[in-house]
Amino acid sequence: MTKSIFTLFFCCIVSFASAQMASDKRAILNVLETQRQAWNKGDVETFMEGYIKSDSLLFVGKSGPTYGWQQTLNNYKKTYQGKAGMGILTFGIKKVEFLNNDVAFVLGSWHLKRDKDEPQGYYTLLFRKINGIWKIIVDHSS
């Protein structure tokens, strides 16, 4: 009897954890989709809502590391000027892996379609669940 209760209890915990992980994965993918849609509207400020609004945000690109939400926003605005400079963004999600209950790793690809070119690359993101909301805390894009 004790063994069956333990087995049932264990199965309930595993089931709950799996459901929570699926819910968290959907939430992370929703952040990325909201970013993609905002980018494609030329709305870099809404795009930036996916990032933690903190000086601790780390963005690593071809020019090296940038610290802070505001500096990251400034760099986006300088590099991708106007709707034509931003183009149409698509993502290819390769992997979402949970490192613990409130930290996740995302690997993906990005592609911009613009009139004059089509830059593309890959990114790795670290997400942290802060007050129940998933935010990007590290972005390494190349």
UniProtKB/TrEMBL annotation:
> What organism does this protein naturally occur in?
Pedobacter agri
Q: Which residues cross the membrane?
A: none
**Keywords from the UniProt entry:** Signal
Q: Does the keyword Signal apply?
A: yes
This protein's source sits in the domain of life called: Bacteria
Statement: the UniProt record of this protein carries the keyword Signal? yes
InterPro entries per the UniProt record, alphabetical: DUF4440 (IPR027843), NTF2-like_dom_sf (IPR032710)
Q: Which range is the signal sequence, renumbered to this chain?
A: 1-19
Name under which the protein is recorded: DUF4440 domain-containing protein
Tell me the ranges covered by the DUF4440 domain, including all copies.
28-136
